[in-house]
Inverse folding.
């Protein structure tokens, strides 16, 4: 999953103890919050980059994701519990988890190397450490950046705890060499003796492995192995606790190690690719090193490229804790025939291809079929792990979540392995747009990477699966006709048609018969679309940058007059003839009163930082405008004049829902700052008073793109996040 969030936000460089952040063992925290917050269920939807079982504590397991934070397994509910919902907009980058480490001698301690990007516009990363399995966290700033959503993000683990001395940690970075802590991650110092301080491929040090047999409890382990993401010299060993390092003699060349596992009997297994991945890997191998003798053995199950176009690498790697000869590995980027998992029970001499007989049950998340009748293992299998307390159970990661089996050893008897979605509780969608129509389903959503959904039941993944006819990888625009809510349109990225309409509330779709300036911006997202209140016309702010109107449901298009390039259009929710377009660079509002045929300037004094324009659902010409640090503004005359809402200091996104009992006006929902506190707010009196409805445990990173209320149920609100899926809240 590759979702780029380009807003520049500085990460706070102070040590902050996040107190009282209790993680509920079912879905969301049960707190004194005025609202109960839960996920709209889709399941997975993004790249789970790593799985970590605790080696000595049964049922203690974690996963990390590239933009959605970390999760802990709850065996009682059979769901994953999100651990970073407390992260606010200033720290949004911490939801990209580069690495996760557990203390083998203390099942309560968990560490995250948190930071999404290494770009110049992102602040430094942080080590998050917890002594209660992620219920509360302390943030320790570090003087470098992590790349939790960059290439090589499934390589690992870069962060490791010495199994003999829990206070000692080592951390491999992408661009700043090797670092160590001697105080449980409270402070960090660079290991100057390690020979690699930079990065050739942008991924840097890929993993750190302590050899627990080289030390005794209470004293540092003497032997440490480190893998570096380069095709040159890339495997190093220290036998004196990190004081000096040597390149392992005889190591394979021309490929970079992705994952490594050291067994109790001294075998070091390694998976390799020619690139950091998760895309572009076209070669790979699997090797085993006898660390006692120094003998290397190539144990690659299938040579990549042996079938001509069958090019791929190897990524996921696990060894059965109960039998060091039993190993599983996964391919990555095997696009020609689909990725695979191989299993050996004799240390790599022979392998069984699990894909030949495996079955996959996607009933928990039907969207992952993408309309196909049969399923393979999926794509981007960056990690696979065997439960150290149950050799039958294995989990593997994909670009769309997590899968697992409870009958892995049936493969040894020539039987098929059965895999099912294991992503319950993990929601990693980046949400682009949300609709809650006055009749029909409670929610219709547009998201990146997996299209969009009609949600009839918020507690289950939509059983209709992914939208087809056409299939869109990402939906960037959605709208419905206010007077005819069953009429819905969508636009987005697709190799098929980039626009479609529905007459049954997003159950089925008909692609537009034509497309304005077809072919222009073919690789771009298709921006936004607005539907007239009666459904008689819609305006597509199209990939070529211009706005076009159609009056025959996409059969023919012509360009709207009076509009400049790259302006999004919205419709009045009452008068089907009225449309609005905001030009923030020129501080102008343009209005059409002839069904979007032509636009005229209506206001040339829009507030600075004007960002998002919304039309209220029940009053003609009633507009609301968010203006970032310049607050929230309202117009009652179609945009000719705007007045500032007094108690709101910053405004990011706004939406509307059912009016409170005995109130005439709709409820207003806002993400912004009121009376000095950033949060999610509701106003029942047209913006005079605001009530914060979330709390510091429910912040979800950056949620400034989309919010909407429910017109059928007072108090319900839907939030679109940038990595934690769709969140909805109900008053307690």
């Amino acid at each position: 999953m590759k979702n780029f969030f380009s807003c520049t936000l500085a990460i706070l460089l102070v040590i902050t103890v996040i107190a009282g952040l209790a993680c509920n063992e079912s879905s969301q925290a049960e707190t004194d919050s005025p609202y109960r917050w839960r996920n709209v269920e889709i399941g997975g939807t993004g790249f789970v980059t790593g799985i970590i079982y605790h080696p000595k504590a049964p049922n203690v397991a974690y996963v990390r994701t590239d933009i959605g934070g970390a999760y802990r397994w709850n065996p009682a509910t059979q769901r994953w519990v999100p651990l970073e919902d407390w992260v606010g907009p200033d720290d949004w980058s911490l939801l990209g988890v580069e690495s996760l480490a557990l203390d083998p001698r203390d099942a309560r301690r968990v560490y995250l190397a948190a930071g999404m990007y290494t770009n110049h516009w992102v602040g430094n990363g942080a080590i998050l450490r917890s002594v209660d399995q992620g219920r509360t966290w302390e943030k320790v700033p570090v003087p470098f950046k992590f790349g939790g959503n960059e290439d090589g993000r499934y390589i690992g683990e870069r962060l490791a705890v010495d199994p003999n001395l829990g206070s000692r940690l080592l951390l491999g970075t992408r661009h700043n060499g090797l670092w160590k802590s001697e105080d449980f991650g409270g402070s960090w110092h660079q290991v100057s003796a390690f020979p690699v301080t930079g990065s050739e491929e942008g991924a840097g040090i890929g993993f750190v492995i302590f050899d627990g047999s080289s030390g005794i409890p209470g004293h540092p382990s003497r032997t440490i192995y480190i893998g570096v993401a380069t095709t040159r010299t890339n495997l190093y060993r220290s036998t004196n606790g990190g004081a000096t390092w040597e390149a392992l003699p005889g190591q394979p060349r021309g490929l970079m190690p992705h994952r490594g596992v050291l067994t109790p009997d001294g075998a070091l297994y390694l998976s390799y690719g020619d690139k950091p991945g998760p895309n572009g890997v076209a070669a790979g191998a699997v090797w085993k090193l006898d660390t006692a003798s120094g003998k290397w053995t190539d144990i690659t199950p299938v040579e990549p490229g042996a079938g001509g176009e069958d090019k791929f690498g190897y990524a996921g790697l696990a060894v059965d804790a109960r039998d060091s000869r039993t190993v599983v590995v996964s391919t990555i980027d095997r696009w020609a025939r689909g990725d695979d998992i191989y299993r050996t029970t004799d240390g790599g001499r022979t392998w069984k291809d699990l894909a030949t007989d495996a079955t996959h049950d996607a009933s928990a998340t039907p969207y992952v079929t993408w309309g196909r009748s049969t399923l393979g293992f999926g794509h981007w299998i960056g990690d696979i792990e065997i439960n150290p307390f149950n050799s039958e159970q294995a989990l593997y990661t994909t670009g769309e979540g997590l899968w697992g089996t409870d009958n892995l050893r049936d493969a040894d008897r020539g039987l098929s392995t059965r895999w099912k979605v294991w992503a319950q509780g993990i929601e990693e969608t980046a949400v682009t747009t949300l609709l809650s129509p006055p009749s029909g389903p409670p929610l219709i959503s547009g998201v990146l990477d997996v299209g969009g959904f009609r949600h009839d039941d918020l507690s289950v993944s939509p059983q209709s699966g992914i939208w087809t006819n056409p299939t869109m990888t990402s939906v960037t625009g959605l709208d419905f006709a206010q007077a005819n809510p069953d009429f819905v349109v969508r636009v987005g990225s697709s190799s098929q048609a980039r626009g479609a309409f529905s007459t049954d509330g997003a159950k089925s779709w008909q692609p537009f018969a034509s497309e304005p300036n077809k072919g222009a911006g073919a690789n771009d997202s298709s921006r936004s679309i607005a539907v007239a209140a009666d459904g008689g016309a819609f305006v597509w702010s199209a990939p070529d940058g211009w706005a076009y109107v159609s009056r025959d449901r996409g059969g023919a298009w012509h360009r709207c007059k009076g509009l400049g390039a790259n302006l999004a259009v919205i419709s009045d929710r009452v008068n089907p003839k009225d449309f609005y377009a905001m030009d923030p660079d020129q501080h102008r509002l343009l209005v059409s009163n002839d069904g979007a045929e032509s636009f005229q300037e209506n206001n040339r004094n829009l507030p600075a930082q004007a960002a998002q324009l919304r039309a209220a659902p029940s009053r003609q010409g009633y507009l609301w405008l968010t203006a970032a640090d310049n607050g929230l503004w309202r117009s009652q005359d179609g945009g000719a004049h705007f007045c500032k809402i007094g108690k709101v200091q910053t405004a990011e996104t706004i939406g509307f829902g059912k009016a409170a009992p005995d109130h005439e006006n709709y409820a207003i929902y806002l993400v912004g700052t009121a009376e000095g506190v950033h949060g999610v707010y509701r106003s029942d009196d047209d913006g005079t008073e605001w009530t914060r409805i979330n709390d510091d445990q429910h912040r979800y990173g950056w949620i400034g793109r989309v919010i909407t209320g429910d017109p059928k149920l007072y108090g319900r609100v839907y939030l679109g996040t940038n990595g934690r899926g769709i969140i909805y809240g109900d008053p307690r």
